[in-house]
């Protein structure tokens, strides 16, 4: 197989793409390519990964212009004429090379009240939730988020409105808004409403298109809009 | 939220108004276009059209509703556009949009009464 022509972002917000030639292998992933560059060609390359099997959400990068989880992205699927361009995730400050600062991304989870608030103690019995109940089915559809930031990096509204909480934080809020054990519903709906919250979503659906876990944050955000509207009409907000 | 100029409840009520006015507009635009196509195909003259609209409380009510829906829908839709494209949030944006809504209402009702009276 012909070697792969790879251009990799070097620097911070200022910087340039550096060209490398990387040998091709069967079933090679984009993360394999980046790892080869760092181990064999330029040990100063900074990038982030942990599990390599699509569980931890730390290796997301922009590959040929599209945010992807690199450990589960095969070179065969994304290389264009044997070429790859690998850049850090968009909409987050670059620390160095392919590593972005995720603080703002996760701070927004906290601002969206992405923390479970319960009323039970450990002395009480387990809550019994029928897996087939309508609410639990909605939670299940959105719960498998690994926090990789692909949706946040793919969302145009995040670029236009830097205060916007973004698809992942709102998706998390939705899983709690549908959790019948949670006691912080009204406060959370207040936190996710308005210009920086669910009402800023334009339903472009880039997040749903690109989520590697096939979650549809757009649907979660639409659910939040409905719940927020109901709460507003009931005078709870 | 940090840069929202209105309380969360008001933002939400604006969103509800936007959705409700959109539903009304879908109906109004359909009826309006169907009427225009019907009137043109039938070869009605301006005088014949005016003869049907003048004094008709049905058409007055319909087009007043249409103007109301536009007056509500357009400024709320422009609001995020101004915020996202121009970075214009804050009170001045809402004041200008409120004035724009009133302008739409006046111009719209002027047109409605032009064919009613």
Q: Any overview of this molecule?
A:
- The complex is a heterodimer of chains A (237) and B (117).
- With 237 residues, chain A is of the alpha+beta class.
- Chain A has two domains: 4-100, Ubiquitin-like (UB roll) (Roll); 103-233, Alpha-helical ferredoxin (Fumarate Reductase Iron-sulfur Protein, Chain B, domain 2).
- Chain A is built from ten helices and seven strands.
- In chain A, α7 (167-177) packs antiparallel against α8.
- Chain A is elongated and about 60 Å long.
- The termini of chain A are far apart.
- Chain B has a single domain (15-116), classed as Up-down Bundle (3 helical TM bundles of succinate and fumarate reductases), CATH 1.20.1300.
- Helix content of chain B is 85%, strand content 0%.
- Chain B is elongated.
- The model of chain B has no long low-confidence stretch (mean pLDDT 92).
- The chains are: A alpha+beta (237), B mainly alpha (117).
**Name of the CATH homologous superfamily of the largest domain in chain A:** Alpha-helical ferredoxin
Helix content of chain A: 25-40%
CATH architecture of chain B: Up-down Bundle
Tell me the total number of β-strands of chain A.
7
Give the overall shape of chain B, derived from the CA principal axes: elongated
Averaged pLDDT of chain B, please? 92
Q: Largest interface, counted with CB-CB under 8 A?
A: A-B, 19 and 18 residues
> What is the CATH third-level topology name of chain B?
3 helical TM bundles of succinate and fumarate reductases
- The string of secondary-structure elements of chain B, in order, is HHHH
Q: Quickly count the helices of chain A.
A: 10
The figure for the number of domains of chain A is: 2
Largest sheet of chain B: none
Describe what is shown at a glance.
The complex is a heterodimer of chains A (237) and B (117). Chain A has 237 residues and is α+β, with helices and mostly antiparallel strands.
């Amino acid at each position: 197989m012909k070697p792969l022509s790879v251009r990799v972002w070097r620097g911070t917000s200022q910087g340039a793409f550096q060209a490398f030639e990387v040998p091709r292998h069967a079933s090679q992933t984009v993360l394999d390519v980046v790892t080869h560059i760092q181990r064999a060609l330029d040990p100063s390359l900074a990038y982030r990964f942990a599990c390599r099997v699509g569980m931890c959400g730390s290796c997301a990068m922009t590959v040929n212009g599209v945010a992807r989880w690199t450990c589960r992205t095969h070179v065969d699927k994304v290389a264009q004429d044997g070429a790859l361009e690998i850049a850090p995730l968009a909409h987050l400050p670059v620390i160095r090379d392919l590593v972005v600062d995720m603080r703002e991304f996760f701070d927004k989870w906290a601002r969206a009240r992405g923390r479970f608030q319960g009323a039970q103690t450990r002395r009480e019995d387990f809550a019994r939730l029928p897996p087939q109940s309508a609410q639990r089915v909605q939670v299940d559809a959105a719960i498998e988020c690994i926090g990789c930031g692909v949706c946040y990096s793919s969302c145009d509204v995040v670029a236009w409105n830097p205060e916007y909480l973004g698809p992942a934080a709102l998706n998390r809020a939705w899983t709690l808004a549908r959790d019948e054990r949670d006691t912080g519903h009204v406060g959370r709906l207040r936190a996710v409403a308005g210009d920086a919250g669910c009402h800023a979503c334009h339903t472009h659906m880039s997040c749903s298109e690109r989520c590697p876990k096939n979650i549809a944050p757009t649907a979660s955000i639409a659910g939040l809009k409905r719940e927020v509207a109901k709460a507003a009409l009931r005078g709870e907000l | 939220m940090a840069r929202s100029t209105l309380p969360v409840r008001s933002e939400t009520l604006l969103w509800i108004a936007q959705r409700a006015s959109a539903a009304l507009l879908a109906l109004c635009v359909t009826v309006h276009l169907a009427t225009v196509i019907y009137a043109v195909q039938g070869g009605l003259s301006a005088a014949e059209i005016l003869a049907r609209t003048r004094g008709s409380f049905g058409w007055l009510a319909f087009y007043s509703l249409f103007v109301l829906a536009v007056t509500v829908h357009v400024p709320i839709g422009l609001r995020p556009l101004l915020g996202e494209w121009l970075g214009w949030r804050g009170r001045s944006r809402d004041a200008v949009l409120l004035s724009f809504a009133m302008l739409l209402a006046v111009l719209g009702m002027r047109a409605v009464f032009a064919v009613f009276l």
